[in-house]
């Protein structure tokens, strides 16, 4: 049996459409999500914004009740056995929230150590260890409002680990971090896995999941659309070639013509600086010339043909969902 | 954590409230009545600190994203929220000192404490009772996102029905039973009777009785509203 077991989990959010009218709006955030995470595993939950990642984590961390379905963490039901479960799990989320800005980092840790029932005899030692681990030694007496985004995130991790939880939930921990800060944080997460912790990580950065996770599940529109090892997901698109074409100002009509070309599986775009990069998943690289032919009259920059990455597999899965 | 602005505001509020009492009661000629008005002002500030200050504090916890961390913590929610409420009430003791100093300087109100031991028991009893009444309100603050507005709206009604703004004898008889279940009524009585004479220990006893009742009610309410908040996803603003 897995440390985390999720079976046909559903969650509907209801909100009033007006203060004075009776109308209710319903949003189905989870539509029957199922997966399991083994002991000591680092499992990634990937998906775009609004896919249901945070809703899943909040149900598993006892903060939200599911509408239906089953969830088990360490054999306990987060909906009904929340009191027993809370001392055994840690929850770390990304962003600027979740800390007391006007207190020092040290005072934040002291407060949360009390709230998370760290024994008084161990509290000092545990805080010292964690300050060393997350690299905040020497800055712990400064107010959190003076901390950089990366320092805040490291303090978040220290807070989440104060009570030495068996299972740790990371909800987009590297969001908004600079590349160096994000890399340091990934190293911290990797070291926790090596220490035997069971970790559920949500992210929409594919390289992060590829680097860290042993298994991943892709969630889109509240449903799991694929799961397996990162290499298995990549294998699903391994028979394709990705062609990247740097252009400027291509309209939707032209993109439609590219999609209609025989052998083209998908076409997406992303903006990098002022350039528009067209990402084409195609049967093989021989389609480069026909594609450029359809872009006749458009300013073309760099053209690259490469093997698909996990991100390409992810884009394809989410697009199909 | 209180800022310098909070402490500065507490220097101004007593002047406004004591002035209202001073002129509204027409108590210029009676030092005892003036002193009672000053004590009433202090209790008004205790309630204001608990219901508005603590309401705002919980609202801030929601905005800062720390409310859900407190909920997700192993310790019961009551053990983290009750100190916020009682601490806010204790901040009202600072208001009492400021009121007495301003009363002495501006209106010549003498400081007259008849029974110091009883006064020193009455003061914390009043703080705890008012703080625990605020704890019941806090349970609803967790569920509803407009906690701060709700707090402000509960400030004046309690001042009125507990006789802090003007004597209960001016109000309809049916207000009496309502005042009996509200902590500021007994807290104010206890402090006033300790200072000016009266059956102080029975008032302190009533503070203890309502405190125990508030704690029991708030435990039930917090458990119920926490479950509702988990169902409605109302721990965060977004």
Element layout with pairings:
The complex is a heterodimer of chains A (321) and B (238).
Chain A: E1 4-16, E2 24-37, E3 42-46, H1 53-60, E4 68-73, H2 82-86, E5 89-93, H3 105-115, H4 120-134, H5 149-161, E6 167-171, H6 179-194, E7 198-203, H7 206-212, E8 215-220, E9 223-228, H8 230-235, E10 241-247, H9 252-259, E11 264-272, E12 275-282, H10 288-294, E13 300-306, H11 310-320
Parallel strand pairs in A: 3-7, 3-8, 5-6, 6-7
Antiparallel strand pairs in A: 1-2, 1-4, 8-9, 10-12, 10-13, 11-12
Helix pairs in contact in A: 3-4, 4-5
Chain B: H1 4-24, H2 31-64, H3 67-71, H4 77-107, H5 116-143, H6 147-153, H7 155-161, H8 175-180, H9 183-196, H10 200-232
Helix pairs in contact in B: 1-2, 1-4, 2-4, 2-5, 2-6, 2-9, 4-5, 5-6, 5-9, 5-10, 9-10
Give an account of the 3D structure.
The complex is a heterodimer of chains A (321) and B (238). Chain A has 11 helices and 13 strands. The model of chain A has no long low-confidence stretch (mean pLDDT 87). Chain A has helices at residues 53-60, 82-86, 105-115, 120-134, 149-161, 179-194, 206-212, 230-235, 252-259, 288-294, 310-320, and strands at residues 4-16, 24-37, 42-46, 68-73, 89-93, 167-171, 198-203, 215-220, 223-228, 241-247, 264-272, 275-282, 300-306. The two termini of chain A are 29 Å apart. In chain A, a hairpin with a 2-residue loop joins strand 8 and strand 9 (223-228). In chain A, 33% of the residues lie in helices and 30% in strands. Chain A is of the alpha/beta class and 321 residues long. Chain A has a 6-stranded mixed beta sheet with strand order 5-6-7-3-8-9, with helices on both faces. Chain A has a 4-stranded antiparallel beta sheet with strand order 11-12-10-13, covered by helices on one side. Chain B is an all-alpha fold and 238 residues long. In chain B, 78% of the residues lie in helices and 0% in strands. Chain B has 10 helices and no strands. Chain B is globular, with a radius of gyration of 18 Å. The model of chain B has no long low-confidence stretch (mean pLDDT 82). The interface between A and B is medium-sized, with 28 and 21 residues.
